Amino acid sequence: MADTPTLVFDFDSTLVRVETLEVLADIALDGRADATDIRGEIGRLTDQAMAGEIAFGDALRRRLALLPLNQSHVTALADRILEEGTPSVRRNLRFFQDNADRIIILSGGFREIIAPIAQRLGIAADRVFCNDLIYDAEDQVVGVDDSNPLSRAGGKPEVIRSLHLTGPVVMIGDGWTDAEVKLAGAADRFYAYTEIVRREAVVAAADAEVPSMDELLHLEGLPGRWSYPRARVRMLLLENIHPAAVMRLEEAGYTVETRKGALDEDDLIAALKGVHVLGIRSKTQVSERVLAEADRLMAVAAFCIGTNQIDLDACATRGVAVFNAPYSNTRSVVELAIGLTITLMRDVADKSAAMHRGQWNKSADGSRELRGKTLGIVGYGAIGSQLSVLAEALGMRVVFHDLSERLALGNARRMRSLDALLAESDVVSLHVDGRKENENLIGAAQLSRMKTGTLLLNLSRGHVVDIGALTQAIGSGRIGGAALDVFPEEPRTNSDPFDSPLMGLKNVILTPHIGGSTEEAQEAIAEFAADRLLGYLNRGDTTFCVNLPNVQLADVSGGHRILHIHRNQPGVLAELNRELTTAGLNILGQHLKTDERTGYVITDVDHGYEPEALRALKTVAGTLRFRLLH
Ligand SMILES: NC(=O)c1ccc[n+]([C@@H]2O[C@H](COP(=O)([O-])OP(=O)(O)OC[C@H]3O[C@@H](n4cnc5c(N)ncnc54)[C@H](O)[C@@H]3O)[C@@H](O)[C@H]2O)c1
Ligand SMILES: O=C(O)[C@H](O)COP(=O)(O)O
Known about the structure:
The chain is α/β, with parallel strands linked by helices. The protein has four domains: 6-220, 3-Layer(aba) Sandwich (Rossmann fold), CATH 3.40.50.1000; 233-328 and 518-548, 3-Layer(aba) Sandwich (Rossmann fold); 330-510, 3-Layer(aba) Sandwich (Rossmann fold); 556-630, ACT domain (Alpha-Beta Plaits). Helix content is 35%, strand content 18%. Strands 16-15-14-17-18-19-20 form a seven-stranded parallel sheet, with helices on both faces. It has a six-stranded parallel sheet with strand order 3-2-1-6-7-8, sandwiched between helices. A five-stranded parallel sheet has the order 10-9-11-12-13. Helix 1 crosses helix 4, helix 8 (155-162) packs across helix 9 and helix 16 crosses helix 18 (382-393). The radius of gyration is 32 Å and the shape is elongated. The model has no long low-confidence stretch (mean pLDDT 94). The chain binds nicotinamide-adenine-dinucleotide (NAD) and 3-phosphoglyceric acid. 3-phosphoglyceric acid (3PG) binds next to loops. It catalyses: (2R)-3-phosphoglycerate + NAD(+) = 3-phosphooxypyruvate + NADH + H(+); (R)-2-hydroxyglutarate + NAD(+) = 2-oxoglutarate + NADH + H(+).
């Protein structure tokens, strides 16, 4: 077809993430004293040639002359070049294989290195145009075939012209020699390929910059791995989320922006314009108003356990999926609770502060062992139950209270009421979730039911304890000490001030919401939450989603996936399938999962679709969100 474009790909830093000559230099110079100098000179020549500052043929010969290159070096790179495929090229392998007859590889690189990649991509040898190395009788490289136009300046346009291609020619590459193809009139369009390296002069000469294959296919209207280029999916991560998450999400091709602190409502609304995914921790409030203004938001990830800072219902009614990391910092909180209990029991904080003031205050008064004391755990979920196990191991008696039926671990005893637990405990530790109804769960009445001298820990949420009532109870001596890690008002960033009536009180330990702030926990959270996001974005998988029906999904193989989130009302599936049939699609597989409020349908179909034909799915009554994945 005359209108079908021929896609002409450069090789180095486009189809592979390396520059061949630089890797060959590393191999050939391995162990030599002058390796760094020669390597530096080769890198400089590559950059100058790729930026159009010196002629390509000149640069090629000068670089080869610098290297003691032989056939075994070339073979060593050829053997491992498949591992160096550019990430978005690897994930679009199928596109190359299905369209091999409209693709050409055009490179100043060498045939031995390019051939394995061309073969993997399904591109025939007669569609690969590149240089041929010349070896002497000892297998040393002595140069390149000078008769090949690609060994000199202006070679790429010359080769393209000699092919007399019909239809548009589209050049894709990272270097100046690629830009020259269009500038010399041998290509109709030139895309600067910037996934591996971005050169300003090349981008300036291009019709458009493409940071990935996905973007190229999107711009050319070609069927890629994704219906929407990943680099166009913007993610905003707030509150100092661990870099492991950024790395994972960027490696998958998404565009990630990070900020250190939390944002207030107005700033968050402004920051969320055009953002598809928001990552937060416990501080950022995702309110109905924020969601109403978020024009692109499709998912929120809480890189922590608690999700009370997010309006989950408002998210669900907009089809915004919410994920968290329910277990990744559990152990860290439990260890801190144990440490704080011992610290309170022994009045360590005050004794240490006195020492810092130069006071030696050796005394056993009021200092007690954990052994044999009763720990009352309020909220026997993931954290509460793990604390139960560790506390028993230290010799404590454990009682607990939970609104739900929970398995009592070890010798822990369930208490039918909170009051009964309060009356019996020497230490009370709060591990309830952050639901609104838990506001002031521990107030003046509850404090008055505790034994005189009881110790109180709160590592759950700040609003669970009435701070005024606690201040009084500590002042009166009813409460013998308290450790608080969470507060009704917490500073948004480390530069904002903290204030509380509890400051300066005897045997009161205040920590800045660090229960889950360990290196281990933060890295584990980053990996877990990022994986959940990737599962949702890449496959539609909602495992561990806290506000939409959970559906565990494998990758789609050999088909296309259509995702539809709707209000749970009668007739949606039937209407959806009518529209799919009208669009001429054959359903390969379909999952429907509902909860009382929302339905989630995942449909895999067996062949390409016209995106326009499927827009009708948006009009199905009850639709909250509709997404074409592939
Ligand atoms: N300080 C920190 O850094 C930190 C770190 C992680 C988690 N947390 C907080 O810890 C809390 C617990 O986390 P989790 O992972 O154990 O949660 P979880 O959901 O596994 O457990 C919470 C338990 O509390 C129970 N519960 C809720 N309200 C109750 C009430 N009024 N009375 C009795 N039981 C009640 C629930 O039924 C549930 O079993 C959450 O608030 C979480 O946000 C704080
Ligand atoms: O819910 C949580 O996991 C904790 O409160 C920790 O929150 P953070 O990530 O803001 O420290």
